[in-house]
Amino acid sequence: VSEDCSSYRFRHLMCFALMFCVVSATYVPPPHSTTKPGFPVPMNTDNPGVRKAARFGVYRYNNSSNDLFLFKESQINKAMVQIVRGLKYMLHVEIGRTICKKREHSSLDSCHFQKKKSLQQMLKCYFEVWIMPWLHKAYVPIALCH
């Protein structure tokens, strides 16, 4: 009886494994499905989520720099997003020095770029911004500018 039972289980297990392999081998994701969990995909640099993530990166840069003036994003050159317990944005952004001093302004939207040649400065940055919308949190683990 035990041989029959174990043989029966073995056959069921083999049948399941074979069926799994056939289904896995023949499964093709739909053409519109480009985002897979854990795999970075390119994003349009005009995407509102990308722009918001770039702004978080700029906030991080401004909070850690010793410059008297605020910087803001002038151009987003490349954007990728990865789905990992939220959205992780990987951004290549150019930022420029504005006319707004750090202690006087709260909104970057109203800050214009420096007009004086001696005060103009542009930096190329790489930001990684991890956004967890359901927690209303954004974390910038990497903000490298040069």
UniProtKB/TrEMBL annotation:
GO terms for cellular component: endoplasmic reticulum; extracellular space; Golgi apparatus; late endosome; lysosome. SMART domains: CY. Gene3D superfamilies: 3.10.450.10. One of its GO terms (molecular function) is cysteine-type endopeptidase inhibitor activity. It comes from the Eukaryota. GO terms for biological process: immune response; negative regulation of microglial cell activation; positive regulation of myelination. Signal peptide: none annotated. InterPro entries: Cystatin-F, Cystatin_dom, Cystatin_sf. This is Egg-white cystatin.
